[in-house]
Amino acid sequence: MKDKRILVTGAAGFIGSNLVECLIKENYVVGLDNLSSGKVKNIEEFQSSKNFTFKKIDVNDNDALKREMDGIDIVFHLSANADVRKGFDDSTVDFRENVQGTHSVLEAMREKDVKEIIFSSTSAVYGIADVIPTPELYGPLKPISHYGASKLAAEAFIFSFSSNYGFKSSIFRFANVVGKKGTHGAIADFIEKLAMNKKTLDVLGDGTQKKSYIYVDDCVNGIIALHGKEDGLFNLGTRGRTSVTQIAELTVARYSPGAKISYVGGPGGAGWVGDIKFAGLDITKALRNGWRYEIDSTDAVKKAIVDAGVSR
Ligand SMILES: NC(=O)c1ccc[n+]([C@@H]2O[C@H](COP(=O)([O-])OP(=O)(O)OC[C@H]3O[C@@H](n4cnc5c(N)ncnc54)[C@H](O)[C@@H]3O)[C@@H](O)[C@H]2O)c1
Questions:
Q1: Which of 27, 34, 70, 296 meets the CB 3.0–4.6 Å disulfide criterion with 58?
Q2: CB 66 within 8 A of CB 112
Q3: Could you tell me the pTM of the whole model?
């Protein structure tokens, strides 16, 4: 990707800021974020680049969004509520941020004749799949969290806008993404807990939860390398899987050696309502199209644990 004018929503977030870092090398990027979970600190280093402009805008403010769409070639739509647990207490948040927010982006693109969207979806759309690793064609899709449901609905709107108005679209269903600037998920959660209590780490679930993790650089490279290929729908993850117990032990070893790990349980041994206990993505399609990841699941977790210490 070169010499494009790109709009990135969620630019100050974890994955968004890593994506911007990569894109501004050869493109001009307008980064939007309402800073609800994103941080100015994440994009500070790009502010001096002639290839980057930041605008504090909420994607649900359709008029403001439209003003930023002038002359844009491609939209990378990453803004979302990315915290699965948040939706349990407030069932409106995923609908507002992920469904309405995506519709607002698509509508602004339509009005301003922007023709390509790249979207960050999630393995959560598969719900509790009985095929692991789960391929893109798995169905029926029955998400078990409002987060998964909202991402599936957002995907559906992207398909219908593409079909109705001739948009090019690419949808990436990410595994758990970890790495520099990461702010949520098990690693961040464990480090925060150990900072408050050095002796005991309380872990949600029974520890056997096992999922695929991908390092953020591999994720960003995948989006850029694969967008527009085949039908545009790709799982993005790694072949390995890592258990919550492994993550807890690795985090304790680094931040509070000797701390006792205590499993507090959860629904069916999962961490919380809506947590998918066992997940892994079939990435054959991404590999077939030439993408390769550099770091497998457990090494991605190990690297992210070190990164978290650097950014604190
Ligand atoms: N991190 C993961 O493991 C993972 C896995 C699968 C999918 N995803 C998806 O990747 C994307 C990025 O996730 P992340 O992990 O970087 O999370 P994040 O919370 O760090 O990033 C989301 C960003 O969107 C911004 N935002 C939220 N609502 C907004 C709104 N209405 N208007 C403008 N900005 C808004 C937030 O401030 C934040 O900067 C999300 O769409 C998420 O669902 C993440």
A1: 34
A2: yes
A3: 0.97
Residues with catalytic annotation? 147
Backbone angles phi, psi at 204, to 5 degrees: -70, 140
Kindly report, residue by residue over 25-40, the tens digit of the pLDDT: 999 999 999 999 999 9
Q: Which domain holds residue 24?
A: 5-177+213-236
pLDDT for 312 equals 56
Q: What is the structure's pLDDT at 310?
A: 67
Output phi, psi for 263, to 5 deg. -90, 120
Q: Do 145 and 43 share a domain, yes or no?
A: yes
Co-location of 74 and 206 in the same domain: no
Q: Taking the mean position of all CA atoms in its chain, how far away is CA 269?
A: 24
Counting as low any pLDDT under 50, the low residues of the chain are none
Q: Which atom of ligand 1 is nearest to the CA of 96?
A: 31
Protein residues whose CB sits closer than 6 Å to any atom of ligand 1: 9-10, 12-16, 32-38, 58-60, 78-80, 82, 97, 101, 120, 122, 174, 176-177, 183, 185
Q: Are residues 149 and 268 in the same domain?
A: no
The total of structural domains in the chain comes to: 2
Q: How far apart are CA 38 and CA 97, in angstroms?
A: 14
Residue 81 CA to ligand 1 centre (angstroms)? 6
The predicted-structure confidence for 268-290, as pLDDT tens digits, reads as follows 999 989 999 999 999 999 999 99
